[in-house]
Fold these 2 entries.
Entry 1:
Amino acid sequence: RWPGVIEAYRDRMPVEPGWTVVTLGEGGTPLLPAPHLSELTGCDVFLKVDGMNPTGSFKDRGMTMAVTAALANGQQGVICASTGNTSASAAAYATRAGMTCAVLVPQGKIALGKLAQAVAHGARILQIDGNFDDCLELARKTAADYPVAALVNSVNPTRIAGQASAAYEICDVLGRAPDVHCLPVGNAGNITAYWAGYRAYLDDGLIPAPPRMFGYQAAGAAPLVHGAPVKNPETIATAIRIGSPASWTAAMTARDDSNGKFAAVTDDEILTAYRLLSAREGVFVEPASAASVAGLLQSTGDGTLPRGSLVVCTVTGHGLKDPDTALLTAPTPTVVPIDPSAVAAALELA
Ligand SMILES: Cc1ncc(COP(=O)(O)O)c(/C=C/C(=O)C(=O)O)c1O
């Protein structure tokens, strides 16, 4: 039985003996071969399917650690800014811990599935008249003024420690690190966590070499690519619609120390990868997650990712999070009478 992230990697987690571990069984997600992407790119491609976590995104890896620490510190609640998945995860883990949860979300820019989760878990949801970056600033100030609430955004180091577990799992399964690791980048907590995880395994002699970190941002929200914050970030991938990443410096370190790169992928490239994943690999992810595969296609196409490489693409959130985007391309449904021949005709079986 998979014990959850903290117990699975206890000696690598900032948890003290005697602490109550708050877990929903997160981690241990599939590292899935991607035969179609491998054939397309001439690489050996695996998908780290982190939409298979309890609340449907990689955030659970960090939230189990952040909420466990908050509970141990005697805090009564958690607070976060979120484009959606952090709030869904914070709400679930706070509920599990018997704590309250407050979330600040940018007005009108949160995918339906994520809002449903925060609502279902009884979070206090404040729609802020601003974007994610405004929400994060607000959450930081509120948590500073009211220490009774733990700030559980990825500026909280316990989140990073928990999320490093994805790198441990990948190395444990492959017996090595990939040559290149592709992932979407928004607030840049996840790329920071992956690099910390790979470095820990390298320093402990568990892998011969770390991967090159290839981080991809939506073209309309690509501060790390431009080298300056983006005032009004815009992308269909609302999870990474972030203009001023909180972990900017750590993200740059991950890129530079790994001989990696940041690149921008357009919404069209994201949607192409999004559809390819569901239509050819059978893996349904939310748009932001597809940015890692859009980046794989772009970087193998322009030669910056060499053919024959062993590549892991993290797909960070389940497609059910954003049903509206999936339905954008739905054909208009035809109503069929209760008649087998009509069904056969509609399915062109005849
Ligand atoms: C599906 C999905 N894919 C990628 C990212 C980017 O990760 P970071 O670079 O660590 O921010 C997010 C981030 C979401 C939030 O920031 C939030 O939920 O507030 C995400 O939900």
Entry 2:
Amino acid sequence: MARVDELFSAVWLKFGSRALSSNLVVPKAGAAGAAAGAASDLVFCDRILGLVSRSFAAVIRQLPAEMVLDVLLFYLVLRALDTIEDDMEAFKDDEAAKCRHLTAFADSYLGDEAWSLDGVGEGAERELLQRFGAVSRLFNRLPAESREVIRDITRRMGAGMAEQVGVDLGQGTADLAMYNRYCHAVAGLVGEGLTRSFVARGFESAAGGANYGLANSMGLFLQKTNILRDYLEDYVDGRAFWPQSVWREFARTSDLGEFARPTAHGGGLYASAFDAAADPQGGAVIGKGTRTSALACLNFLVADALELVPDSLEYLRRLRTPEVFRFSAIPQVMAIATLEACFDNPQVFSGVVKIRKGQAAQLILACGTMPAVEAWFHDFATRIKRRTPADDPSRPKILAAAEEVIRLTAASAAEQRQRAAVRNALPAAAVAVAVAALATRYLGVFAGA
Ligand SMILES: CC(C)=CCC/C(C)=C/CC/C(C)=C/COP(=O)(O)OP(=O)(O)O
């Protein structure tokens, strides 16, 4: 349901706010020689960024002009690598070829202006690989230090991804340690690389506490939130990232898919186990017990992600550049909102849980300062705490994680509440003063009459 404050935020973000205006300077086409080539490469990269990224395009474009291209290219390079990793069709008969691409990417493909790849990925991602020369040409124009950061992270991520090819995190011996290693390879390293870029471009100082351990947690928090939210989409695509050692504790069969059994009735391709419980036929197979255990497993993974928040808050607290702060904070706030929306929510097993557009706009606009960000974390952690089922087997773990976030953010939440109270009181006070002034005037007139 649309709410007035969310509607206002959405409209303000679209038409009135300068919070996320673009700092990417795309030179006018028509300049001579190499400059014209660079201009059209930049136009392509900016366009493709908008198509392949749901959440990062806007926060990248608002970065300071000196580093927007570093981060844009960093994103596209990793997205291209991720497209190769993600394609379950193109390499289904030749996993070795997928591994070769992943490990060769940083040192053989990136920077080779003639290299491209056809037939891998879909839509805009496929186009990115087909026209990867544009990314390489702009990459070659970056300062050496920026190139080194991007190449190093791409090399390590490619190696980490290649290690996982054919290893299904939902199968085999996958445990929490392996889950953490995978999340480090695909997201924690991004945090490290971005931190190095901020420092290399002089926007954050290493001495000021740019810390790779905290940066790793920032990436893990985003990745783990995506993994638990995308349970159904991944399962339908033949992938499973929920660690086996966790879901086996909760499942009754050896199939992670039992949390989302296909049924003949409503709810899209897969109806949830919750629906099945109410279904006379499905219910015989999947009773209420399955629904409860699916939610218990989900809630355990939510708590596991929530435990990363203290590190994320510490990382954000140390940032000094407003645009870098916004770039880093907005995805984190979106993630805690998504986490709260997924918590104890049976819809995770029957569809995609999304936060409302208006709420997203409201969160983006509120990510300008640390106290505001902390207040949102406080709000979502409090909701998770309140909604924790009394009989959830992970209740102590969930409450401990939520309460730690609540404790760390309590002062900012109180301060924000006070500010809001003053803000809300101001119009009332102004009306009272105006009424008093008018009354005095008219009473004076009457008294004088
Ligand atoms: C220090 C610091 C800033 C750390 C953060 C590191 C970082 C950005 C990691 C990427 C993690 C991730 C899950 C990306 C895809 O998200 P998505 O699928 O929501 O994004 P998309 O919309 O672009 O596909």
